[in-house]
Amino acid sequence: DDAENEAQFQARIDAEEFIEPKDWMPEGYRKTLVRQMSQHAHSEIVGMLPEGNWVTRAPTLKRKMILVAKIQDEAGHGLYIYSGAETLGTSREQMVDDLHSGKAKYSTIFNYPTMTWADVGAVGWLVDGAAITNQIPLCRCSYGPYARAMIRVCKEESFHQRQGYESLLAMVKGTDAQKKMVQDAFDRLFWPSLMMFGPPDSDQPPSQNMKWKIKRFTNDELRQRFVDATIPQAEFLGLKIPEGVVWNEDTNHYDFPELDWDEFWAVVKGDGVCNDDRLNSRRKAIDEGAWVREAAEAYAEKQKIQQAA
Ligand code: 3HC
């Protein structure tokens, strides 16, 4: 019966075993994972948009090649994670429909505009940096397909983070205007990148996700880890550190001010600067690609008939 199944399930989790698609799992576990994995996949796909905005304006051929490769990696991550989520019994079509109807979420960060070339570097450094901080522990997520997907995704994100940082490093060695541009990108994107970790722990009941080992650390723990890693990197770039971010000798961590949670929830609910733009771009892509999918299906059908004959 269910209680017995549930006890066995939890015992396997406690013993650090992976749960696989055909194993028994509580409905809540399945639902939580479909939600988180589909949101994650949507973030990868929508995340291509702010960067795609700069492909035609990359300053050199080398930067353009790196940017295109990175965007292609994000597409790969999205498809990979959708496939992982499908093993839980929800189709990719359903998940994409939920994104386009506004029912499913994707990371708040992608509703902020990329206004200058320095923003593209800052996205690599801060956004991919925050993503790695969050995703390294997901390599030990209890759901096997998700955990395994994260190993490759994290390796690629690590390259993304370094290319972003390296491009900013080149800019801060450049003209005063370039340095100013990097500072401006940092000032605008630092706080939204901290919001990627989700609402504060104080908002949350003790997490079932942690008991199920979907999550290994709380949102605030990971946010702190990211701040501690990022501030020395900002200092190395010669950037001015935001007001209120100070090293605390007693805790051995950086203190930082409370984030603007009203802004966070407004962006989650669809009121960010770019929410409408992002969803419209995705809907348009699906509509305009319909003929390609139809042609591919017709071709596959024709091959099947020819093979049968
Ligand atoms: N943006 C949008 N929604 C967010 C959010 C954010 N930054 N942070 C939290 N939320 C949503 C949650 O999804 C949840 O919504 P729901 O219950 O209505 O679906 C609600 O706010 C409450 O938050 P919780 O902290 O309770 O939610 P979680 O336990 O799921 O934790 C999370 C949030 C840490 C983001 C977690 O879902 C997670 O680890 N997700 C996997 C990683 C991921 O999605 N990363 C996306 C980042 S970008 C990326 O990877 C692309 C790369 O190219 C940079």
TrEMBL record:
InterPro entries per record: Aromatic_CoA_ox/epox (IPR052703), Ferritin-like (IPR012347), Ferritin-like_SF (IPR009078), PaaA (IPR011881), PaaA_PaaC (IPR007814)
Record flagged with keyword Oxidoreductase: yes
Stored SUPFAM superfamilies: Ferritin-like
Pfam family, one: PaaA_PaaC
Keyword annotations of the record: Oxidoreductase
Catalytic activity, EC: 1.14.13.149
Coiled-coil boundaries: none
Protein name: 1,2-phenylacetyl-CoA epoxidase subunit A
